[in-house]
Amino acid sequence: MKQADIILIGGGASGLCAAIEAKRTKPEASVLLLEHLPKVGKKILATGNGRCNLGNLNAHTHDYTNKAFVNGVFSQASTRNLCDFFRSLGLYTRADSEGRLYPLSNTAASVLDALRFECTHLGVEILCDTHVEKVKKSNGGFVLNDCFFARRLIVCCGGCAAPSQGSDGSGYALLRSLGHTVTPTKPSLVQLTTDTAKIRALKGVRATAKLTLSTGGETAGEVLFTDYGLSGIAAMDLSRYVLPNRKAAVTLDFLPDFSRQELTEMLGTLCRRNSALPGENMLTGLVPKALGSAVLKDCLGAVPQTVGTIQPNEFCKIAHALKAFSLTLTGTKGYRDAQVTAG
Known about the structure:
Shape: elongated
Structural class: alpha+beta
Number of strands: 17
CATH class of the largest domain: Alpha Beta
CATH superfamily of the largest domain: FAD/NAD(P)-binding domain
CATH architecture of the largest domain: 3-Layer(bba) Sandwich
Number of domains: 3
């Protein structure tokens, strides 16, 4: 039976970082990292569109649900600590205008290389193609797969999101077997699936909007219409509020800076100034042309031939549709396409 003072399960970002910290803290300890994929760090290479978003300078200012817990974490592991850690590996960082941190090289491979090289330098042993199926306490330590023994065990298996990248949720079963409680989980930062009757012609169209979920929760930002529903950062942010097996609707406000009354008056003025304007061009000064047509079809039943044929009472309907374009939510794209696991 192979023995080590410290064994880590999972060779992703957290596992590699934990292995480095363990060896730095206890240089005399033997540290073994087990990874079930052929190579460590596969998900690192996919993050940040291949650039690896390491953190955010403004992370501490976010309105977190459990502020006490988060404040405790940041008091011991701040963004500065993170930058210092990577600098100690020879990896330097830069921040974009939104505070997102990336490696100076702008490539995720640099991050993985820095972590792997430091593990090698410190003497961390890495075994790939090693899937841990069972763990049990024994003789003051832990026995894994009946062939590994560790005095200390660190589980870094990740969640359920993007299983093709290595995190398939198998770590939860290992933790339950050791007596830990696992809260219910769900996919997050994932695309939304909706009824597509209203948006079939909008595939590939991007717009900015405020999104509100009927069961609670709202976000704002870019939305991308797809053949299955909604993508884009605003839609993916909203996924955190989606409740499994619960009916809901998503309402999109394409012009949150204007009231319905203001829009009604603006539309009336526009139509009076140019009554011969084709209906399909009516809203091009406010939203993308294809989206404008979809809005008109939603509230008027069809796109008018010219704006001069629109009745005065219909301007209010159009304004309402621009402020409250509603889609029936059918769910999300699930763990396969999710970026994180919530729970």
